[in-house]
Amino acid sequence: MQTGKNFQAAKSYARSYVESSDPSGSDSATENPDADYFTEQLSPSRIEAQLREAIAKVEPWQTRKIAEQFLKRFHQIGLSEHHLQQKLHLSTHHPEQMTADDVSKLAAFAYQTHPDSFQEVLAKQQTLMQFLSNSIVIAIFKLIEAKWINYK
Q1: Residue 137 in contact with residue 47, Cβ under 8 Å?
Q2: d(Cα 107, Cα 124) in Å, to the nearest integer?
Q3: How far is residue 148's CA from residue 150's CA, in Å, rounded to a whole number?
Q4: CA–CA separation, 136 and 21 (whole Å)
Q5: What does the alpha-carbon distance between residue 111 and residue 125 come to, in Å, rounded to a whole number?
């Protein structure tokens, strides 16, 4: 089955990415060979905090582009900027004026409620990926896994 092979390849890639980007230099797979990187559950507050930290590291123009992409995707699925501003307690609905905190709220909302939108925006914003923690990278691969499983 091709889907299973694709998922195994993605899982292998994610594991090697996580291990190669471990700043401690330790090989966590060697330390714990039974560790399954794909079973870690991330709470919404933890995801939002990690996204806020990553978004704060990118250039302001990139933060604006990320906000624009999320708002564009939400608009396509029928969510207005004003509704999102109220629901998520954003400081503004204008992407050029959004703070890293506002953008992280949009990203966390997308991750929790519209994972396809989250995945699509991150695919377009490769710069952000380099600042995400291993846990978020793993969570992204969980989204891909779920999508592939649903296609079976």
Answers
A1: no
A2: 13
A3: 5
A4: 13
A5: 15
